């Protein structure tokens, strides 16, 4: 197959998506164009993984709304999908764990494809068809194990997430190392210089710099969810900043208000809480 | 109650021949009822139903003649809203509403192609004018420039008009007007303003309606105003020698008015202070702040398309489909 030398990549974006905006969706498009453009990768899927309510961020509305809005936003997309695993967990989950979950899922389904062959032993009239399929999938899986390998999950993010690595106690050092070492980061940034400087000033990021891809966003598209929520509170229009279906959904359910913005005020963010708890034990 | 216009649920929904209405039992409404009482585990099952329930209009249905603006092309949008304006003026809902000046926003430009940022200009301008308490925006017009403008890479007007129409499918107050593009030659912006202003005055039946049977109006209702909508970059071009005639600039800001939306790297207040004409009529120049910095330039879009890069989420999907279908902007410098 002509694509056999390329590594297949799955882009995973974690975040609040409170709400999802056109900017979030642009991140995927930019990352895909960039990775495919290197000639070394082929982006096969994009996953949006909204954070669980247990994250306790200020103004974070219920996960089921955020998941539905993400679903509505990706309705039209052939390669983007929403994954609810993270949002359904009782406790907050570290990003590195979410990455691991998705990587394992990919490995498992890739294994399934290879193991398909011996399992198809249905008697009766389906046998002939099953045997033919068996031959085909055996051949295909051999090719796969030889050349393609398992698709790799990479974390997609904006420069703000990269720089949040520097916030004390927000990330575990070992998690940062895992994310850039075992998986890889694709960071969409406007100010490429600042991001490069940030990588330079961190030993662990510097060590894995080949696994950190900085993609320049030439169009300033500063549609932050915070600004969307503020505009909604002030009765201002958010049309053309979020997909139409999302805007309709928000309006229909009156999702964002001064009250919703007050949620979790005074509550410590889950990762910080966990860090304190671990320090105490 | 939201001070803006009522919610927009108005594109053609494949499920129903009428418009998608929020309070009927639409698929989304039904799913929502389930979700209100479901546990997180149940939610996981519900989500696939949403995917089947909610669908987006396809380009086929759009081009099959069900485009809303075709129906509306005979009438400007504000003619149906004039009743609302008149009603607002005559009923004492709030004193403010009575004295609000009706405004139509006109945006001239290449729209080569139209982008989400162009559409945002209208939304931001409307919010701004409403917030002043003095205006009620009753309509918006996009007027793509004539082919004879001679700008580099300008694709044929019929395409630019068609793309704008597709982009405005889901808007209930903005529409595209091909008049400028259909003229024999390029014309100055002030002439386009004059044309649309006289059309506006001619089309409104409000004059007769208000004269009849209104007892306690304090006086004649306000005349609708047509204002030029633009980005701060256009305001800057007023300084370019020989690009605009001084008397035209004066007519634009004196007789019509300008609504100018922020753009990064520009200093609209500075441009006003630097021009005696603009300074004199600065009360008629409204500077609207766009809280979201949005630099989606059509130039960039054309370049990205020429290089085979994605422009999804920067312009409406229907416009992207049209561009692909007609092979527009395939390489920079063509057409």
TrEMBL record, chain A:
EC top class, as a word: transferase
Keyword presence, Nucleus: yes
The reaction(s) this protein catalyses: beta-nicotinamide D-ribonucleotide + ATP + H(+) = diphosphate + NAD(+); nicotinate beta-D-ribonucleotide + ATP + H(+) = deamido-NAD(+) + diphosphate
GO terms (BP aspect): ATP generation from poly-ADP-D-ribose; NAD+ biosynthetic process via the salvage pathway; negative regulation of adipose tissue development; negative regulation of DNA-templated transcription; nicotinamide metabolic process; positive regulation of adipose tissue development; positive regulation of DNA-templated transcription; response to wounding
Keywords: ATP-binding, Magnesium, NAD, Nucleotide-binding, Nucleotidyltransferase, Nucleus, Phosphoprotein, Pyridine nucleotide biosynthesis, Transferase, Zinc
NCBIfam families assigned: nicotinate (nicotinamide) nucleotide adenylyltransferase
Protein name, per record: Nicotinamide-nucleotide adenylyltransferase
Gene: NMNAT1
TrEMBL record, chain B:
Listed NCBIfam families: nicotinate (nicotinamide) nucleotide adenylyltransferase
Cofactors named for this entry: Mg(2+)
Pfam families in alphabetical order: CTP_transf_like
Species: Neophocaena asiaeorientalis asiaeorientalis
Gene Ontology terms, MF aspect: ATP binding; nicotinamide-nucleotide adenylyltransferase activity; nicotinate-nucleotide adenylyltransferase activity
Function according to Swiss-Prot or TrEMBL: Catalyzes the formation of NAD(+) from nicotinamide mononucleotide (NMN) and ATP. Can also use the deamidated form; nicotinic acid mononucleotide (NaMN) as substrate with the same efficiency. Can use triazofurin monophosphate (TrMP) as substrate. Can also use GTP and ITP as nucleotide donors. Also catalyzes the reverse reaction, i.e. the pyrophosphorolytic cleavage of NAD(+). For the pyrophosphorolytic activity, can use NAD(+), NADH, NaAD, nicotinic acid adenine dinucleotide phosphate (NHD), nicotinamide guanine dinucleotide (NGD) as substrates.
Gene3D superfamilies: HUPs
Pathway involvement of the protein, from the record: Cofactor biosynthesis; NAD(+) biosynthesis; deamido-NAD(+) from nicotinate D-ribonucleotide: step 1/1; Cofactor biosynthesis; NAD(+) biosynthesis; NAD(+) from nicotinamide D-ribonucleotide: step 1/1
Enzyme class of the recorded protein, top EC level: transferase
EC identifiers of the protein: 2.7.7.1, 2.7.7.18
Cellular compartments annotated: Mitochondrion
Keyword Transferase included in the entry's annotation: yes
Keyword NAD attributed: yes
Assembly and binders: Homotetramer.
Main location: mitochondrion
GO BP annotation list: NAD+ biosynthetic process
Catalytic activity field: nicotinate beta-D-ribonucleotide + ATP + H(+) = deamido-NAD(+) + diphosphate; beta-nicotinamide D-ribonucleotide + ATP + H(+) = diphosphate + NAD(+)
The entry's keywords: ATP-binding, Mitochondrion, NAD, Nucleotide-binding, Nucleotidyltransferase, Pyridine nucleotide biosynthesis, Transferase
Family indicated by similarity: Belongs to the eukaryotic NMN adenylyltransferase family.
Record's protein name: Nicotinamide-nucleotide adenylyltransferase
GO CC terms: mitochondrial matrix
Disordered, as annotated region: 1-29
Cytidyltransferase-like domain boundaries: 106-303
InterPro entries membership: Cyt_trans-like, Euk_NMN_adenylyltrnsfrase, NadD/NMNAT, NMNAT_euk, Rossmann-like_a/b/a_fold
